[in-house]
Amino acid sequence: MHTDLVAALDIGGTKIAGALVDGDGGILVRAQRATPAREDGDTVMAAVDQVLGELTAAPLWGGVAALGIGSAGPVDASAGTVSPVNVPGWRGYPLVERARDAVGGLPVELIGDGVAITAAEHWQGAARGHDNALCMVVSTGVGGGLVLDGRLHPGPTGNAGHIGHISVDLDGDPCPCGSRGCVERIASGPNIARRALADGWRPGPDGETSAAAVAAAARAGDPVAVASFERAAQALAAGVAATATLVEIDIAVIGGGVGKAGDVLFTPLRRALERYATLSFVRRLTVVPARMGTDAGLVGAAAAALAGHADRTGTATAGV
After folding, report:
1. Among 50, 52, 114, 311, whose Cα sits 20 to 30 Å from the Cα of 215?
2. What domains lie within the chain, and their CATH numbers?
């Protein structure tokens, strides 16, 4: 018998993953479908229903206390709706209500994907043991979430900690969000590659123009590739330092595809942070790579479900 058993969904533009997760973050049952991202909203929901159908058919389902959902955003946890940028069929889509119906009326907790990954890193990963942390996902976009005073801090709509849209360059490029000079506009994978190409970097014989290819070139000493990562690191450092100054975090965890670049990113990032995080109460701030990998969204959604269940029942849930 598993205590604190919950169901979790991790919904993105590529895949919809589901799991049954125990109170120690162990994944006991898995289900997955491709996201029909170009289809209408009900077709996308049908794929979610298929994943939930597999989970509800599992012998362990009878012990499930709640469902946690981490979704690509924006999300609105207060309204129970989602409008993922990369799933155009879902705009203000009532995901919580539909999912609750699919799981027989169980409590449902909705958070954004950046917040879900934060919950996972705080519960089981690189931010474990830290009461005040920022966790970031740096990949196609830049998202994030906050842990304050030992608890996940999703904010009223579930989007708090969305560091990708802090402006760090007052006269910078227009960002698709409507602002200018956002962290995401400089530090996301596609923007690292875009800058490198614009400044004269040329891909190798395979023609690969991703941020991973730029990282490989930077490791090999290509000065334009190095400069593109240094610029991204500077933007990230400015955003992290601003966050630390505002809410006194002592660790920043960086995951996502760009986070996997290793020293090409982290060496200039730590150097830039020394220039931006200068006040006495932010100088001890450390920046580390994420640890949770591809299951982070599921584990974080489960953490949110467990925390919600603990709040409703008045029980303590360690580390969530």
Report:
1. 114
2. 5-112+294-313 (3.30.420.40), 126-291 (3.30.420.40)
Give pTM, 2 decimals: 0.90
What are the structure tokens assigned to 151, written together? 């608890």
Report whether 27 contacts 21 (CB < 8 A).
yes
pLDDT tens digits along 193-208: 999 999 999 998 899 9
Does 176 have pLDDT greater than 50? yes
pLDDT tens by residue, 46-79? 999 999 999 999 999 999 999 999 998 889 999 9
Separation of alpha carbons 310 and 316, rounded Å: 6
Report pLDDT digits (tens) over 293-316.
Answer: 889 999 999 999 998 888 888 765
